[in-house]
Amino acid sequence: MSRSVLVTGGNRGIGLAIARAFAEAGDKVAITYRSGEPPAGFLAVKCDITDPEQVEQAYKEIEEKQGAVEVLVANAGITRDQLLMRMSEEDFSAVLDTNLTGTFRVVKRANRAMLRARKGRIVLISSVVGLMGAAGQANYAASKAALVGFARSLARELGSRNITVNVVAPGFVDTDMTRVLSDEQREGIVKQVPLARYAQPEEVAASVRFLASDEAAYITGAVIPVDGGLGMGH
After folding, report:
1. Is 218 a catalytic residue?
2. Distances, alpha carbon 186 to alpha carbons 52, 69, 172, 202, 204, in Å
3. Which of 46, 152, 179, 211 is least surrounded by Cβ atoms within 10 Å, i.e. has the fewest?
4. From CA 190, how far away is CA 206, in angstroms rounded?
5. Is the pTM of this model over 0.90?
6. pLDDT (average), residues 98-106
């Protein structure tokens, strides 16, 4: 059965791979984006998740055109890397407002219809950095670690309504964001990964789609690492 799916930040990288995975499975897929031209084949809604009014308007458009959101993938996020001594208040708060509070906004809005329907799937995209930390990424790591506590609290709160809430924590993924690194930087990263390679976005998407499937109906509050073994034990 075709479901109404929303992937925030679904215009590139991991988000786009996730959107494509659901579309290939026959679901109706909406994506949010902030700038540029969105990819074809989806209901593309311009939305900055740091603005509550834009989030509300995005949901209204999605509900009108493809129905209430039954599967939410909260993927939109930003980085503003800097050593703590040089990190500004604005750099810290901007990352938290997008990655954590922005996720709160989109999940809360989706929850309204899911509660009425007594079913739903919510998947939050965290990061291996949120589990093991990274120098120069205190703001990003804090925001991504917080998603775990947020998801597990909601898993307990919403489980009786047949709504599951899970987290996928990717490691280093071969996207535009990581391709800007030098060969030396990329080589240094790969040396830390037991599987000795970057992930492909489609590998992350496969785990997300599984968590939203009937096969994962009894999985909630889980953190699924897709990191080649980099963060094992966390």
Report:
1. no
2. 37, 38, 10, 20, 19
3. 179
4. 22
5. yes
6. 98
